[in-house]
Write a structure and sequence with these properties.
192 residues, mainly alpha, 7 helices, 0% strand
Length: 192
């Protein structure tokens, strides 16, 4: 496999993970990077790199971030965005992976892109519920700030240094898997 293809796959995985934190931030980063000539998108996704898309993603990003600063509304948003994050992760992966067959691209997009986004979204959902329960929602703005910052940072890293972004995502996935397994193991022991 060509090194360039590997880098685009790592970029897609990084962007997918970023969409698990916030759906619209990675789209905004990709849109700006494409519009400025820093990123080449797959042909069928060139619309992402247009001025109307930048404007739309900017407005959607502001609304999404603002919504996550309202305690308990953020929990509702997590419920709504969980399936959307999987779809966003798949679209982001497919938009940046070029030079491979469409069949392989969409398998990667669905499994890797959607799977990574869904896993990160599950982690943020567990974190937010835990924060809501333990702090009565008062800690949620802090969680929201970390999530938004993580999405911005990971999106930029995925576009400009995809190898590092890929390493970070692998570490995040291992941590998320451990955390989610421990959470469900504790729940099942409590219910037994």
């Amino acid at each position: 496999m060509d090194f360039e293809i590997i880098l685009t796959v790592l970029m897609g995985i990084g962007l997918s993970a970023a969409s698990g934190f916030r759906i619209f931030i990675p789209f905004l980063v990709v849109s700006i990077a494409s519009l400025t000539g820093n990123l080449e998108l797959a042909d069928s996704f060139s619309w992402i790199g247009t001025v109307p898309a930048v404007i739309t993603f900017s407005v959607a990003t502001i609304i999404e971030i603002a919504g996550y600063y309202i305690p308990w509304v953020d929990n509702i948003l997590d419920t709504i965005t969980s399936p959307m994050a999987v779809i966003a992760g798949a679209i982001l992966m497919a938009s940046v992976v070029t030079e491979i067959s469409p069949f392989i691209k969409w398998i990667l997009a669905i499994i890797a892109g959607g799977g990574v986004a869904g896993t990160i979204q599950a982690l943020t959902g567990v974190t937010r519920v835990t924060s809501s329960i333990t702090t009565g929602g008062l800690g949620n703005p802090g969680v929201s700030t970390v999530e938004s910052g993580s999405s911005i940072t990971l999106s930029a890293m995925a576009v400009f240094i995809p190898l590092i972004a890929g390493i970070i995502v692998i570490a995040l996935l291992l941590w998320a898997a451990k955390l989610l397994i421990n959470k469900f193991t504790i729940k099942s022991k409590m219910s037994s």
